[in-house]
Every structure is written in structure tokens, then in C-alpha cells.
């Protein structure tokens, strides 16, 4: 495939973000049509690339060829793991933008909203494609700065406060990331991830590098809202407009947080057992504490936001177990199972948590409240929202035959096979508490007898379309458990992580 | 080495400010101090004592030039920091209009 195709993932949304404020002012409806159509285009393109097969494509910005084997251009790298993340980002992006066509009519300055969404998508696509550390930092800042603005989009008291909190912690995280990148540059005098991985090949048990890795865990841990660094997430994700909450919870914390961590830890640094244990412990803590904090919430979107922490805990635990096994030189097939479970749960979480936030938006749109005590009796008035949120709730609590069941099952099976019995027990407990809190959501929102009969009506077509499609995906993604389908979509992504040094070989074409 | 330690101390001063200040604007200022300590460190990484400015011209050898890449990185990072600060100050001003104060303790709609 032509390498220049991959740069279009960044250029197209950036160009749209440039056009919308100019043309959108003159032509009514331009912003909605343009954003939806480019997101659909990017979705089709990313699925097409994923189906092409597991090859690694590199694009050198400016066409600067390597000099004497030393890469000097800024690299954009599309390998199966990036392709996997691109599919998630653009899928959720398209669904949220299509949903926003109806939802955002209540707000003013729609042009600015779509501009910021395009910038955020461009930034996230850039982060997962970047093969250069500093370039990654720049793309990361593009996506998070637009997300700061989007969180504050309602400009009410809570939105502004949440955005301020998010920004202070986010800026601190970005600076830690920059600090880590500076330290790596100090050591290696290069910024290319593949090149650094070659240079650090023999650097095991190096105190300097352990310090850098801890700095990076803290920085990206804040971005991913893992447990000791989670304080901003429930506020920010619940204050944003609902399609944006879906994007933030569904993809932003994965693309700029967990993805970068696993990419750097597996493909750039040498795997280290003690750091892998730290990584897994953070994941397990997020899994259990997130769900405990969630169950007491009465604000629907806050409850969902706390569950994001817990579900990302599953992802990190799964991948962390694989990391420990690989670092110890243990059984590779179990490591592959654990990492596969983690990545599988990542796409599942994007789909069902995106859907749940869209449902929360639909309920807020129709009933005008986010407080679960004030809802109730919506079952008869909103059948589409009821059925789609039921399928998402069952998926997140891990009920068969929905997708969440299979990914949690794989993680638990891998934990037992790898002899991490404590983690297996914690994962089961977290699953049960999740089920309890979603039973609460279903009961209070849809079946409880309210004081007065609600006047809510079903939401408009565009919103229903996104919700129904995502609900169907909750079922369809279960098919990834079948080996033949897994081979196309999931296995290549897992292999890029398992074969830790292959990344450098493929990118630099050694 | 002393300069690196000094810029690290500057970073710690900034972190102290972010953690202890109660005024929205002072938090932003503390963040800026952290930013500049890191920029300083980045610029120092590329520095060679007695080095020349990295401008390739007749009669100047590349061997004694300071590393230009960190300088380019610092310039980019300054632009990004400008955007971050502008965004933070915008939100701080909007918060002031809503609450009539910059005091964090009195801006507490959100809990938990």
C-alpha cells in the first residue's frame, strides 16, 4: 500500500478543522455533513487497512531517507497495533459525531464544537501513528487541549470547574511526559522510537532508565486515569456534552494513555519484571477501587465515568500480566492470551462505554435529568434507549453472549493459567460489583415508579442510529472469540507486542 | 551538573506551588515555572561548553556546534505551553465571572 495513505488520517481531520469555521459560517449544516462524512471515510479507510493484512508501513515526513542507517525524518508508523487503535478511534468518532447531529442542536456555536472534535480526532490518530517521541508529544497535546475546551463546552459552573481541574492535572502530566522524553533524548541522542529501542537493547537493570519509566508511568497514568491519578476523570467525563463523554471515555484515555504506555514498554524499553509488577498492580487497583467508588454514585454519568476507571483496570491488568510473563521469560502462549484479552477488552470497552454515555445523553435529552433518583418509568417511553442500554449494561457486567463476557473470561483464564490467582479473584469480584451497579442503573432509570408520569419521548433518528449500531456491535464483537476472525483482527496486534524487538526491525528495515 | 540540579530545584518549586497555592492564577503561574524548568533542562542537554551556534556557514565546522534539535524542541514546546496557558487562563477568567473569586476553596460544586 502507498505509505502516504497513513498521513491522511492526520491531514483530513486537520483540514476539516480549518474549513469548518470558515465555510460553516456561510453554509448552514456544512459542519455536520462534513464532519460526519470525513469520520465515515476515516472509519472505512482504517477498517480497510486492518483487513489488508499484518504489514508495517512507515512514512517519512518530508521524504528524508535515513543517512547511514540512522533515521533522521519524523516517522509515522502503521503496524497492526496502530491499525487496531485507529479502528477504535474512528469508529467511536463516527458514532459520536453522527449522534451529535441531533444532540448538539441544543447548544450554541456548533461550528466550534465540530472544529474541536476534528482537532481531537486528528491528535489521537497522530498519537497512535507516531513513530517519534517528540512528535507523539505534540499530537498528544493537540488532542488533550481540544478535549479541555470540549469539557468546558457547556460553560456552566460545573463544566468550568471540571475543565480547570482536568487542565491542571493534564498539564502536569504533559510536562512529566516531556521531562521523560528529554531524559531519553539525553541518554540516546535520538527521538525515533525504533532507533531508541535498538540503542537500549543491552541496557538491562539501568537505574536511569527505571527512573525514566516511572516518570512515564506517572505521566501517562494521569492521562489514562489509573487509580492513584484518577481524580480528574469523574468530573471531566461527566461534565462534557454526552457525545464527547463517549469519545473521552471510549478512546481518549486509551489512545493517549494506555496505548502509549504499552507501545513504549513493550517495543522501546527492555521489559523489566519489577516495573511490569508495578504496572499490573496499578491496573488491579484501578479495577477494584474504581468499581467500589462507582456503586455509590447517583449521577448517571459520574457512575459511568467511575466504571471507565475500573474497566481500564481490566485492560491494564490483562496486558500487565502478559508483560510479567514475558519479562520472566515464561510461557509465551499464556502471555499472548493475557495481552489478547486486554486488547479485546479495550475495543469492547470503547464500544459499550461509548454506547452507555450516548444512552445517558439520550436520557438527559428526553427526561432532562442525570440524577437516577429523579428518573424512572422510562421503559415505556424510550424503547430504543431501553434495549440498547440493556445490551450495553449486560456487556459491561460480563454476561454472555455479549462481548464483555468473552474478554473478561479470557483475562481470568489467562490469570489462572499464569498462576496469578489473586488477580483472577479480584477480576471476578469487580465483575460482580459491576453487575450490581448496572442493575441499579436499569432499575432506577427505566422501571422504578416515579412520583409523576414522565413526559419523555424517544430521541431523534440520528441518535437512535448510533445507539442501535453500537448495541449490535456489542453482540457482533463476541465473534472475535472465533479463531479465524481473531487471526485477522486481534492476533497481529498481539504479535506486535509479543515480538518486542520486531518493531524496530520492521520500522528501520534492518 | 550544577545547572541541571538548579533546573530540577526550579521544577520542585513549581510542583510545590501547584500543590499548595489556593489561587487559580497562582496555580497557572506555578505550572509555567515547571514548564520553564523543563525547557531549561532541554536546552542544557544540547549544550557543549564553548560550543557555537548551529548555523552552517563557510569556515565553521560542525564538530563544535551545540545540538540544534533540543532547541527546535523547546521552541515547539513553548508554543504548546502558550496554548495550554491561554486555555487555563480563559477558564480561570470564566470561573471568576461565575463565582466572583479566584479562591479554590470557594469553587467547590463538584465533590468526590
Can you characterise this structure?
The complex is a heterodimer of chains A (510) and B (112). Chain A is mainly α. Helix content of chain A is 73%, strand content 2%. Chain A contains 20 helices and 2 strands. Chain A is globular and about 75 Å long. Chain B is mainly α. Chain B has one domain (2-47, 66-105): Helix Hairpins, CATH 1.10.287.3510. Chain B has helices at residues 2-20, 24-45, 68-99. In chain B, helix 1 packs antiparallel against helix 2 and helix 2 (24-45) runs antiparallel to helix 3. The longest helix of chain B is centred in the last third of the chain and has 32 residues, at 68-99. In chain B, 23% of the residues are buried. At the A-B interface, helix 5, helix 6 and helix 9 of A face helix 2 and helix 3 of B.
What's this model, at a glance?
The complex is a heterodimer of chains A (510) and B (112). Chain A has helices at residues 8-23, 30-51, 80-103, 110-129, 133-151, 157-188, 193-199, 207-224, 233-239, 242-267, 273-295, 300-328, 332-367, 383-397, 403-417, 421-447, 461-476, 483-489, 491-498, 502-508; strands at residues 57-60, 75-78.
The H/E string of chain A reads HHEEHHHHHHHHHHHHHHHHHH
**Count of helical stretches of chain A:** 20
Tell me roughly what share of residues is in helical segments of chain B: 55-70%
Our count of domains of chain B comes out at: 1
How large is the share of residues in beta strands of chain B? under 5%
Provide key terms for this protein.
heterodimer; A: 510 residues; mainly alpha; two-stranded antiparallel sheet; 2 strands; B: 112 residues; Helix Hairpins; 3 helices; 0% strand; elongated
